[in-house]
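User: I'm putting together a teaching handout on how multi-component assemblies are represented. Below are the sequence lines for each component of a complex, exactly as they appear in our records. Could you produce the 3D structure of the whole assembly as structure tokens, so the students can see both representations side by side? Please keep the chain order the same as the input.
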Amino acid sequence: MKSKFIVFYLGIVALSQYSFAQNPLYIPPVLNGPNYDLTMQNGTTTFIDGHPSATMGFNGNVLGPTLMMQAGQDITINVLNSIGEESTVHWHGLHVSAENDGGPHSVIAANQTFSPAFTVLNKAATYWYHPHLHTNTDKQVSKGLQGMIIVKDAEEAALNLPRTYGIDDFPLIVQTKSIDPATGNIRYVSLDYSNSDGNKDDVKMVNATMNPYLNVPRQLVRFRLLNASDHRVFEFGLSTAGVYFNQIASDGGLLVAPYTINRLRLAPGERAEILIDFSIYAVGTNVQLMSFAAELPNGLWGATMSFPGGNSPGYSPNPLNGTNFSLLEFRVTAATANPITSYPSTLATVTRIPAGNATVNRYKFFSEGTSTNGSVLGDYTSQNTSPPYSSPYQENFVNERIKLNTTEIWELQSYDGQFHPFHLHDVGFFILDRKKGNNAAVPPMPGEQGLKDVVLINPGEVVRIITKFTDFTSDVPFVYHCHILPHEDTGMMHQFTVSDDIYVNTGYTGATQDGSVIYPYKTVRAALNAAQDGSTLIFVSSGDHVETPPDLLISKNIKMKLLNGAITVK
Ligand code: C2O
Ligand code: CU
Ligand code: CU
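Assistant: Of course. Below is the structure of the complete assembly, with chains in the same order as your input.
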């Protein structure tokens, strides 16, 4: 099959291995529900003249179609894996059951089909999908397997916003890749950290298009920005000095009101929707979508230095690090027939969760490792600083068992002087505050006050997030991890299950010394009182549960499960 990406070869002396010719921005086609068919396949895409790269795509050579979904819709997705190796496909940001989530446990063998079916529960926003096979995520994502998901809902539809896909509403999947200039091979950081070639991500692209340009109508245009890079942070802005734009949505939904900015920072995995007003320019003007990487603080990948005091292997020299560069050229053309000319002053209802609602606190740290000890995600509470609580990902160890409908605060911290974009599966969250060193904690800026599913943890910073684990229970775990894909692949990932089980443990002392025991009740009586219809009582301790009258009369449908040995209840 012919590549969709045509790089025009100029018959002149090439000044660089990269093509300087500009190419029209590729706009992925749309698939509408309720049934979506995706085939993961191998293909070829030319990023570097004369050296086509082996790529992977959904229904094509690279990337995947944009999946349009309606909130409330019941959908089925059929994913056929034709890449000749195992994979998974995860619906990043969608609130679905662990069985449908496509995390590392839902392996799709070669030539097999994964068919998740679920109701779209999310609000209108921009989500995405990508493989999540443990140790292979960086490879499969870098080779091109990712696509966008656009959820629409009634609240968004009622607003006067641009929403005609490919006309005044555009997906922008922004990436850098490491590509061997001599062969076109896409390199990635594998388990072997000495493979610094994977760090040489000096090839930039939008929607897998090199040197892209986009004709934009001279009016208000909406862009859905996704940082799909495996490492790099982008500091988006426009080349025209003094020109602002509006952020209207974060990862999980519209903001309460447009937020006027001239810089937008997105870490890997994060999305934002923005409105740019091109009516201020004359037809024929070219405006660059930039990354002002020179403005990034050290310790964020893409800044002058990858650590505040030094560099990762392969980081330097990389012409993109610490320098401002264009990602996409906007070419202003005539307005459309009925343009959107102004934006609403208020957008959506955002119901943040008050900190006081939380009943559980967890403390997580992130630390990059080496090829021998792996990258670590850990708990920094006193009980849980040793393995397996603080360790690389272990697929058979469930780090936390979370009780359904619990509201929790997670405190997140970098322990290695670099940034880590934290991502949580299952539910979105709100950022409560950020705290650097001994400074006071500060609430997030308006652009981060909406629902999030990735948060950038800066070096030396403590970030607190709050969420409630609603709707889905299962023995299949959900994961949470750093969205720097080499960190995730080398183990900076843990997992949790959500259940409404009730644990009975006669020896319970009140301490959460073990991730497998949450809220245990010391007596059967207390557990039965707490149980709801359909609950499962799990007996942690074996032996006698001797309890005293008065009699307890219950009319609840309750299951009982024994964890260790036999029990007698008196
Ligand atoms: Cu975007 Cu766990 O993934
Ligand atoms: Cu995800
Ligand atoms: Cu990380």
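A couple of points students might notice: The first strand starts at residue 23 and ends at 24. Residues 90, 92, 423, 425 surround copper (II) ion (ligand 2) (CB under 6 Å).
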